[in-house]
Amino acid sequence: MGKIVTLDIVLGGGEGGRLFPLTGKRAKPAVPVGARYRVIDPVLSNIINSGGINVYLLVQYKPDSLIRHVDNSWNQGGIRVQIVKPDHKYDGTADAVYQNRGLIGEIKPDVVNVFGGDHIYLMDVSQMNQFHLDNGADLTIAAIPVTLEEGKKFGILEVNEKGQVIGFEEKPANPKPIPGNPGYCLASMGIYNFNPNQALGYLAADAKKIKPEGEPDEVLEIVRSNPQLYSLHDFGYNLIPAMRKDGKRIFVYNFANNRIVGAPAVPYWRDIGKLIDFYKVHRDMMGNNPAIRLDLPDWPVRTFRESRAEPQINTSAKVLESMLAEGVVIGKSVVEESSLSYYVKIGERAVITKSIFLGHATVGNRARLNRVIVDKNVHIPNGIEIGFYEDEDRARGFTIVPGGITVISRDYKFDRAA
Q1: In terms of DSSP bridges, do strands 344-346 and 368-370 run parallel, antiparallel, or are they unpaired?
Q2: How far apart are CA 90 and CA 87, in angstroms?
Q3: Looking at the domain assignment, is residue 416 inside a domain?
Q4: Residue 355 belongs to what domain range?
């Protein structure tokens, strides 16, 4: 078989309310992550490293910073990521692809790939594409085991011994466990391979259905009561159940079988839908044996480097198990298990532990931060303590995440008396 021709569609995401305040002024895929990167970078890098050349990023919510980042980091050096704005608001994941269905006829791909733009993982997509074609699948869904509690926020799959889907439920209250592994269920990763003709047919049929108005629970109940008439225009709630009902060949691709040179033996994937997930991703990137690395020489993650200046670290400073971007300056202070993005400046005798800075921030002398996420353009005063006393942090207007994490929003201004 010759080279597989793919159409790679990346969904830029909606409002990302669960990641607020980090999404207050930017789209979720544009949120800085891992000191040097943006959330969108691993997703696009996976596609390009896998040989994809027809790459389309569908944007909608607060897209300006995302568009700037992609133009600066991707649309140069022979690589092109097409940025597509909607003619009218995307009304669900299926509607977003439906509005851009003309690309299928234009490119004539062997496979239509659809990705979420807000997941952190490394993946050779070509391996999944080959699996899809080898099985003559109408739809292939990448999947990973998660705990039953985690499974409540994903589409949960049941498969037979051949890997074909025999059951599917979107965000179930009681996920069905994997046979022989009762504490886990099989979750969709939101990565899809479609047969182009099947995609066109089911997208067109779904587009004719009505999306009810009302409260989310009421709307969902209406859709479930009559799926022939109503739809949320969503892959998980509508297209997958419709294809399964019609007996289409739907397969699950086991993400655990995906291999990348130099990556940990257990492939890593995390949905950063919530602030706690965003925080945990950074924890997973640190230490002597991180669960995921974005600096693999054989699987480069492309990004826009805001600075080329090496970090400046005082010879008396202690920097332990931390990630530092270019342009960082650290005085005679302690930085431990933290991530500092571009142009973060730490003063003298400060102590920063298990914290995340998204860039362009300063920390005053003798300040102490513990388990804090600091967004851009925040200047922390001398001697202040953050992340130790929840009542004080809440009184300052910070967001408190269950689990003891404090979030300081972008452009936050401290009271001069602080």
Answers
A1: unpaired
A2: 9
A3: no
A4: 312-408
